Amino acid sequence: MKRYVFPFTAIVNQEKMKRALILNAINPAIGGVLIRGERGTAKSTAARALAALLPKIRVVADCPFNCDPDNPALMCDNCRARLERGEKLPVAERPTPFVDLPVSATEDRVVGTLDIEKAIKYGERHFEPGVLAAANRGLLYVDEVNLLDDHVVDLLLDAAAMGVNIVEREGISFSHPAHFILVGTMNPEEGDLRPQLLDRFGLAVDIVGVHSPEERVEIIKRRIAYERDPLGFYEQWREKEEALSRRIVEARKRLPFVTYTERDLFTIAALTAEFQVDGHRADLTILKAAQAHAAFEGRIYISERDILLAAELALPHRLKRQPFQDTTAQLMHLEQRLQHIEEQMASSENAPAGEVDPTQEQVEEVTPKKVRTRGGPGRNAP
To answer: DSSP for 182-217?
Structure first.
């Protein structure tokens, strides 16, 4: 019996959270998303809904790692060896995996284990798959990630960054692909993650409950309707769900063709320097997220708006928190800059024919530093 999860497009408000999840679905190399918020703010609902939204995948039917039969470079050691022997791999189509990692998970449960006894006695390399194997090419969800052992969190983030899980025991090693969308959720009231682990998450979103009475009423109505008739409620949202799913698939195909200029790189670097962000992981994350956003909007070039929207998700958890310093003012500074660009874009769309589009020239000064967008005539999405 198929279980219908609450539709992603039916979630009220929480636009930043939805944007962060969609960008990671388009490009998992962004490095996952950390969702921090109070109880009952649709954190786990959004993660499950995203997995249900993603298209089915082609896999090697008898492989526990969901290997891609069309890409030998992303296969496990076993599937690659079978191909080299000339064996034809059986193919099946399955839903995108959704794997829920329990807080009590141990290292062996996460990465898998090698049977040393069989290796010594019989010379056989036997690997017992773990959570990372099941999550390959799917979505790995970690609720209360702040309560997970730091070492286990490190393992997850390492695998997410490298796209491969390597297990070594007593001189024996086994590797398999581990490409997955990492989604971690937590309630800050129960404790925070160490700064080193926070920085490893590509994007982060801080969410709060909806305060508008009208929106709260809408949340109640939708939830009651879903609980009363999950299938009927899904049918009401099927068209929007399928449309968003198609946009994600198209964006994935468009992503390799999205370009950026030297000026874009300087804009990103100036932004991270202005916010005094340590290291260079934020710069790379902003670029990847900006490319994913451009692909999602149907373009093959990034704009300053893409960069700022990406920065809005990539910077909050990386800002330095000095004693007695409030980072809210820094984030408001970023939001004002983004709002100014969107207002200019809106005014240019309403401008009479023949008038100069201000977004093609420059963005007026809204902060002590002037940021300019580049022109984009003649660049159209495929």
So the answer is: EEEEE-GGG----HHHHHHSSEEEEE-----HHHHH
Q: Supply the DSSP symbol for 351.
A: S
Residue at 291: amino acid letter: Q
The DSSP 8-state label assigned to residue 139 in this structure reads: E
Burial class of residue 294, CB neighbours in 10 A (0-12, 13-18, 19+): buried
pLDDT above 60 for 67? yes
Predicted confidence band of residue 168 (pLDDT cuts 50, 70, 90): confident
pLDDT averaged over every residue in the chain: 82
Structure tokens, 305: 């708006």
Picking from 110, 144, 102, 380, the residue whose alpha carbon sits closest to that of residue 259 is 380
Which one is the CATH code of 258-350: 3.40.50.1950, 1.10.1670.10, 1.20.1000.10, 1.10.8.80? 1.10.8.80
pLDDT score at 194: 78
Residue 306: predicted pLDDT: 94
Confidence of residue 58 (pLDDT cuts 50, 70, 90): very high
Out of 3.40.50.300, 3.20.20.60, 3.40.47.10, 3.40.50.2300, which CATH number does the structure's domain 8-56+95-207 have?
3.40.50.300
Q: What is the dihedral of CA 7, 140, 195, 107, to 10 degrees?
A: 150
Q: What is the pTM of this model?
A: 0.80
- Report the alpha-carbon distance of residue 199 to residue 28 in Å, rounded: 16
Predicted confidence (pLDDT) at residue 363 exceeds the cutoff of 50: no
Q: Where are the domains of the chain?
A: 8-56+95-207, 258-350
Q: Which residues are known to be catalytic?
A: 281
30-52 mean pLDDT: 89
Contact at 8 Å (CB) between 312 and 334?
Answer: yes
Backbone angles phi, psi at 243, to 5 degrees: -65, -45
Distance CA 361, CA 101 (A): 49
Q: Determine the average pLDDT of the residues in 150-179.
A: 82
Cα 179 from chain centroid? 12
Phi and psi for 285 in degrees, rounded to 5?
-65, -45
Whether residue 374 has pLDDT greater than 50: no
